[in-house]
Amino acid sequence: MSVHDLRNRRINYDSSTLDDGRAADPFELFADWMDEATDAQDAGKLFEAAAMTLATAHPTADGTWQPRNRVVLLKGWDTAGFMFFTNYDSAKGRDLDENARASLHFHWPELHRQVRIDGTVRRTSASVSEEYFAMRPRGSQVAAWASRQSSPIRSREELEGRVAEAERRFEGKEVPCPPNWGGLVVVPQEIEFWQGRTSRLHDRIVFTTVDRGWEVTRLCP
Ligand SMILES: Cc1cc2nc3c(=O)[nH]c(=O)nc-3n(C[C@H](O)[C@H](O)[C@H](O)COP(=O)(O)O)c2cc1C
């Protein structure tokens, strides 16, 4: 046993069910669950409905693959995929250049739910990136130019110096979308919906792409 013992901390999952009849189309189900998550957010019961963990993997010197993850924000989805925005030269961007596969994960603990989305990744068109970049607050736009995301920097002061430099550069002008910044879309091949139930007998429904649509499978919890 470790020194930090959490073995007796547990909660019961009993707020909802995921019935087989409800699981016809993964995008409709995702829309329902995201609506419920954003409603809970609006009611102050959930922090950030659109926050999702993004896992990528990069090759290591010994020939194996090292996964790593971080949180990003879902900015839109349709049947073509799930979109977020980032710096293409970041660690995640470089991982995806090398291995265009990712896994997204939403955890809405207040609703006793998680959703996993595995698939391939493609960049959005430049116009989609530019359109969203133009909607961002100016401070975030300037930051996108100033921050070489995932690169080492000596100090906070140096980062703030780069921000001041970018502010001077774009003074009195619109801040354009940096060429290395934009959208990525995860095109799903598998989507799992998980609803917590009592006694750890959770509902798990997995949708897998097949030729003419989706195959639906219930998994043991
Ligand atoms: C709630 C939350 C939302 C975030 N949203 C984004 C996002 O949409 N895009 C992004 O590039 N980073 C976002 N970040 C920062 C990332 O988690 C991460 O630190 C950054 O993208 C660098 O990751 P990388 O070095 O693995 O590429 C967010 C972090 C948090 C906690």
From TrEMBL:
Q: Where is the Pyridoxamine 5'-phosphate oxidase N-terminal domain?
A: 48-167
Instruction: List the cofactors.
Output: FMN
The pathway to which it is assigned is: Cofactor metabolism; pyridoxal 5'-phosphate salvage; pyridoxal 5'-phosphate from pyridoxine 5'-phosphate: step 1/1; Cofactor metabolism; pyridoxal 5'-phosphate salvage; pyridoxal 5'-phosphate from pyridoxamine 5'-phosphate: step 1/1
Q: Which UniProt keywords apply?
A: Flavoprotein, FMN, Oxidoreductase, Pyridoxine biosynthesis
The UniProt record lists the EC number as 1.4.3.5
Catalytic activity, as annotated: pyridoxamine 5'-phosphate + O2 + H2O = pyridoxal 5'-phosphate + H2O2 + NH4(+); pyridoxine 5'-phosphate + O2 = pyridoxal 5'-phosphate + H2O2
On assembly, the entry states:
Homodimer.
Could you tell me what this protein is called?
Pyridoxine/pyridoxamine 5'-phosphate oxidase
Q: Which organism is it from?
A: Tessaracoccus rhinocerotis
